[in-house]
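explain this:
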Amino acid sequence: MSERWARAALQTYRWVGLAAYPFIGAYVALRASRGKEQHARRHERYGKPSLPKPEGPLVWIHAVSVGETNAVLGLIERMLSKGINIVLTTGTTTSAALVRERLGNKVIHQYVPLDLKPAVSRFLNYWKPDAAIFAESEVWPMTILELGARRIPQILINGRMSDRSFNRWKKRSALADSLFENFHHVAAQTERDAERFRELGARPVTVTGNLKADVRIPAVDSETKSQLEQAIANRPVWAAVSTHDGEEKVAARVHRALKKHWPELLTIIVPRHPKRSADIQKMLDEYGLSVAVRSTDKMPNAKTDIFLGDTIGEMGLYLRMASVAFVGKSLKGEGGQNPLEPAVLDTAILSGPNVSAFDEAYKKLIEARGARFVEDEISLAKAVYKLLQNDKLRNAMAMSAARVVSNMEGALDDTWDMLGPYIQPLIVNAKLGNAYQMMDDEDGNGTQVGKKRIGWK
């Protein structure tokens, strides 16, 4: 694709978006009816704000879903500690719930605007961010072009480029170049990711590691933990976490097979999308399994087969109960889920082979014998059985996994250093703004002068 064709393609994308904009309401309403949008906040998808813009420096951070949101929490907390305001956008209701739970009102949460010119322009005209930071692999043409037109620095952090995405962009190399050249900096997870971004036209690109490796030990409510430990007592427990459609059935069948050896076995299932809880309960009932559902505050009893963890933000609770964890979206899905939270909680890790989104982490875990791949339901059942009956092997895997995470740490510091040229002026502005505010509090003058001097918008 030539440069001329790339410009024509982007112009076509712009005009198609403008033409579709008046009719997009039906699409958003349909998503809301299916629980994929918050009905009361769907106007945010059109770039319409639901909260006031604060005074002072403001950075827009976008993390599409739960995994990306968790990855940027440490970075967000550092910015907040420096006096920088943050408008954090996500694209899913589950990630919005996570933001509410983990950050409360410390950040301004909005749903990300649709990648249509009217929505993006309205969003940028209102918030006027001093910088835009995107996590992992978010490349939205209209958003990138609108930020570029406003000369707002845009940085991609924790960047990754899957085989599939890279091959698609390579077929449209001129289009990729016209988009990726707008990024002021790309911070890639691995050297392979970095080379791919460079080949697609991004400059400069540095390797800062995986922010998900700087994982904090997941929090847990001590009272709930104590109650659940008492309810479980000394039962053998394994967990299937971050499961996707079809993997709950696998976990149920594995439980039935292993129950022949351990009648007291408890299986914890934590679906990636809690809104699927009702369907999962129905399936488990059809399998004749006794289920305790976390969202109903029901604790498992001696006869409970499955403890269904259908809540957000309690992964630390579920993983602390299990000595073996299967990490989902790896047998029935594609890409896998983050294995590092189980790794820091002394858990032996099992996964299916489809882990392209976390291949670097799994490569290190497999090499260190901190995780094992299973090919199907039968091999999963065999692996869980072997680990539950072999304390020495299970503990060795857990210790190896914890060492891998420790060796991978440092991405947060490296990413923070990379962001220095874009963030440091905002930190200075924030400090000056606080100083002028103090002067204003003392004598009633100076605030407006201060704003003009430091260039606030």
The chain has a mean pLDDT of 90.
